[in-house]
Design brief:
Blueprint lengths: L3 H13 L21 E5 L2 E4 L4 E4 L14 H11 L10 H13 L4 E5 L2 H16 L3 E5 L16 H5 L10 H4 L2 E4 L4 H10 L4 E6 L15 H12 L2 E5 L11 H6 L5 E4 L10 E5 L1 H4 L18 H15 L4 H19 L6 E5 L2 E5 L8 H4 L4 H13 L2 E2 L8 E2 L6 H18 L1
Helix pairs in contact: 2-11, 3-11, 7-8, 12-15, 14-15
This protein binds ligand KE4.
């Protein structure tokens, strides 16, 4: 496989951009390869600058649920762009976006921002402002973006790099972040009791997808709801990944649990930089300019980004059956990977259109069990799949994202490539 131009671009990039990338996990460091620089994408296919094509399971880390270069999304972006790129004033599509999100998802009010990180940091500040409390409880291995208080036992790229805590986070900030064990309600209750009346909120990925994919055990989310109510803390669902992916109403609708605040990103931008936070009106009204919690953004609600997000969300809202189709297709993928790995230490977790192959013989139910995965074995698998035209996330601790553009033939090609990759190593 020719990789000349990617290698040349990476060499130049490393002189000008930290690690040659604008987001760490893209550097392929944990899989010991150089990244492929992508020239174009369409449907579920990526084409790199050397002309190699891949079936793409990164999907821009989740946004591209309809597939890359969706014609309706592109048309909406072109039409909006022709009317100007940014006004710094309210526009009609911001109202349409708020109407659509509050109609299809269980939130009463929403504020648009520019990334999932910004959505999370704003929701945390709002929770603290609303409750008058300082501490936040998160879960080891969950990733909520790179706001200081969230880079404590974080997942995703922070975990991939083997550094779940980050330099530069003041001890006084980290001290207000409590870390519990995912799927372990006792660890949550003991922290709430030890920090009685000090915890503003529990923030959780309702499906953990940044330590690989780890679904909630039965009763876990319900238990968090009960513990928050009993201790006067808010429940924040970080739905940057699960929002509009697990179901049209996200994890709240999928599991039937009402959070107090929810964060969104990825899918709601249709590929453009968009985040959002929302929830109960009595809480959201505390956000400036109607309340004392300040949050702002030059490009928040950008008209072109709104047009892209609206086009994607409208197509999803018009096609509710897609979610079962994606779940069925992802289930077939998961079963195929399990068969391909027969006899090898591999556990495949799957829920909805999210899937992850862990190189471990034991069940993966939290950060501790996820960390037991053999990352060297994953790296070898990743390389074998890449060679066979399958583009996975370059980390054991990320998800495979299945979307509408993944055909049955692509799923079967992926399963066959997995069998060959695993046998070539065995
Ligand atoms: P962004 O700031 O990257 O838009 O969103 C941060 C974020 C918040 N919450 C959850 C649950 C997330 O998964 C993310 C970001 N996800 C990672 C992939 N696991 C983004 C990829 C990257 O960092 O390059």
């Amino acid at each position: 496989m020719k990789t000349t131009l990617s290698e040349q671009l990476f060499a130049t990039a490393k002189e000008l951009i930290p690690g040659g990338v604008n987001s760490p996990v893209r550097a392929f460091a944990s899989v010991g390869l150089g990244p492929r620089f992508i020239a174009s994408a369409s449907g579920a296919t990526l084409t790199d600058v050397d002309g190699n094509t891949f079936v793409d399971y990164v999907a821009s880390w989740g946004p591209m649920i309809l597939g890359h270069a969706d014609p309706d999304v592109l048309a909406a972006v072109a039409e909006a762009s022709a009317r100007g790129l940014s006004f710094g004033a309210p526009c009609q599509d911001e109202v349409r976006m708020a109407e659509l999100i509050t109609t299809i998802a269980p939130v009463e009010m929403v504020r648009m921002v520019n990334s999932g990180t910004e959505a999370v940091m704003s929701a945390l500040r709002l929770a603290r402002g609303h409750t008058g409390r300082d501490k936040i409880l998160k879960f080891a291995g969950c990733y909520h973006g790179h706001a200081d208080s969230m880079l404590v036992k974080a997942g995703s790229g922070a975990l991939t790099g083997g550094v779940p805590d980050s330099a530069g986070v003041p001890a006084c900030v980290a001290a207000d972040t409590l870390t519990a064990r995912y799927n372990d309600l006792d660890s949550v209750e003991s922290l709430l009791k030890e920090n009685d009346n000090q915890v503003a909120a529990i923030i959780v990925e309702p499906v953990a997808a940044n330590m690989g994919v780890v679904p909630p055990k039965d009763g876990f989310l319900e238990g968090l709801r009960r513990l928050c109510d009993n201790h006067g803390a808010l429940l924040i669902f970080d739905e940057v990944i699960t929002g509009f992916r697990l179901s049209l109403g996200g994890a709240q609708a999928y599991f039937g649990i009402q959070a107090d605040l929810v964060t969104y990103g990825k899918i709601i931008g249709g590929g453009m930089p968009v985040g959002a936070y929302g929830g109960r009106k009595d809480i959201m009204r505390k956000v400036a300019p109607t309340g004392p919690v300040y949050q702002a953004g030059t490009l928040s609600g950008n008209p072109v980004a709104m047009a892209a997000g609206l086009a994607q969300l409208r197509k999803l809202a018009d096609r509710p059956a897609l979610y079962q189709e994606l779940a069925d297709r992802t289930n077939r993928l998961a079963e195929g990977l399990r068969s391909a790995a027969a006899g090898l230490p591999m556990r495949v977790n799957q829920i909805g259109s999210l899937c992850c192959a862990f190189f471990t013989a034991d069940p993966v139910v939290d950060y501790e069990s996820a960390k037991k995965a053999d990352t060297a074995a994953f790296a070898a698998f990743f390389a074998g799949m890449l060679q066979r035209g399958i583009y996975l996330a370059p980390s054991q601790f990320e998800a495979m994202f299945v979307g509408a553009a993944h055909s049955d033939a692509m799923i079967e090609k992926t399963i066959a490539a997995a069998g060959e990759s695993l046998r070539s190593r065995a």
